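Quick log. Single chain, no ligands specified.
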Amino acid sequence: MSGALEKSLAILEYLVAYPDGVALVKISTDLNMLRSGCHRTLHELIGYGYVRQMPQKGDYALTTKMASMGLSFLSRSGVVDIAQPVIERLARATEELVRLAIVDGSRLTLVAKAQGAKSGLLYDPDMGIDLRLSCSAAGHAWLMTLQEDEAAEYVSKQGLGSPRQFGPNAPTSLKALQAALRLHAKRGYSIIQDAYAPGMSSMAAPVRRKGEPATGVLVIAGPSARLTAKNMARFGPELMSAADELAMSGSASPLLKAANVGTWGTRVDSGAD
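-> predicted structure:
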């Protein structure tokens, strides 16, 4: 690994998985860095306020600076202010967890939620995660809006989610995934059961203006015992109506106004300073 910026970003992304801190030797080994160079980069990141060193063992962990930047960005984008009333209304109507994911390059990232369930099992995966496209309802709802070759490219780039790692019904081939996407497209929204997590169901509809790319996905999720196929069929019209409402009101937010595609995840070389 070469380049100071590349090393710094690799360390920051790595430390996300270790909120309690991780030792220098493990960081340098896992990232295939020289220990001296890794140590130097970590202390540069400490100087800029992105990393801290734990007082007991000397392990390294992220500070809240990046989280603060992300939350500030979302707040200034207006997406939460626009989406939250719609999400909360749908959560009350379905009495399940409702989430909004934003299209960012070839990724879907969860940015807002509302919990409608008042009792029983509360399904609530981590906010801010990038969803696995091949086995999540949100991923299927977005992929079904794309050309088959483009959808296959994004899934291949991220990798198929294995049934062992996710749920027993996770698609194990592109052919199986594409067959499912065609069924979702006919319905207008995706439905999955025991594919993203065992015992869990979810459904999703793209946030998309007519003739334009999808900018986000609206998701309802809950335990399969409660969010049954019958209930998902009943919630379908409300889900699509809420997604359409977000699409129409999204012009007030840069994140919902246009699909965030383009140069995300690609290296751009410029001769200009």
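Strands lie at 51-53, 60-62, 97-104, 107-115, 190-193, 200-207, 216-223.
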